[in-house]
Specification:
- Pfam families: NB-ARC (PF00931).
- By secondary structure, the chain is an alpha/beta fold.
- 46% of the residues lie in helices and 16% in strands.
- Strands 1-4-3-2 form a four-stranded parallel β-sheet, with helices on both faces.
- Helix 3 packs antiparallel against helix 4 and helix 3 packs parallel to helix 5.
- The protein starts with 10 loop residues before the first strand and ends with a strand.
- Mean pLDDT is 77; it is low at 125-133.
C-alpha cells in the first residue's frame, strides 16, 4: 500500500531475508511487473547491483531504463550518455524524473556502504520510490 500513496516524500522500502528465498521474485511479481505500478509511475528501473560498484555504470543503467519508458527518446539519448560522467549523469536522471513519479528497484543491495553510494544520486526528487531487496 505504501508504494501507491501519493505524496511528496521519497523513501526506501526494504525487503529483507536470507539469500535465495525469493525476495527478488516477490518484488518483481507483486510490484515491478504489475499493471497498477506501470500506470502509477512514469519512470521504472530494475537495477541489479554490480560488484565492484561503479557509480557511472549504475547511473547509465538507470538512464537507459528510464528512457525505455519514454517513447522515442531512448537510442539517441543513451548514446549521448556514454560520454557523460558523474554530475552530468545525475542531472540527466533528475531531468527524467521531473514532474512524475519514479520507481527504482535495487536488486542485491547488501551493505550500508552500497546504499550510501547510491542514495545521494536518487534521493533528490520528492516523488522517487526505492525498493531494496
Amino acid at each position: 500500500r505504501r508504494i501507491l500513496e501519493d505524496g511528496p516524500d521519497c523513501y526506501p522500502i526494504s525487503v529483507c531475508g536470507a539469500s535465495g528465498i525469493g525476495k527478488s521474485v516477490l518484488v518483481k511479481k507483486v510490484i515491478y511487473d504489475s499493471l497498477e505500478m506501470s500506470t502509477r509511475f512514469e519512470m521504472l528501473a530494475w537495477i541489479t547491483m554490480m560488484r565492484p560498484f561503479s557509480q557511472e555504470e549504475f547511473l547509465r543503467s538507470i538512464i537507459s531504463q528510464f528512457l525505455a519508458c519514454s517513447p522515442g527518446g531512448r537510442q539517441d539519448s543513451v548514446s549521448r550518455t556514454s560520454n557523460m560522467s558523474g554530475d552530468k549523469l545525475v542531472t540527466k536522471i533528475l531531468q527524467l524524473m521531473e514532474g512524475g513519479r519514479s520507481l527504482v528497484v535495487l536488486d542485491g543491495l547488501s551493505a550500508d556502504e552500497e546504499w550510501d553510494q547510491v542514495k545521494s544520486c536518487l534521493w533528490d526528487d520528492g516523488n522517487a520510490k526505492h525498493s531494496c531487496t
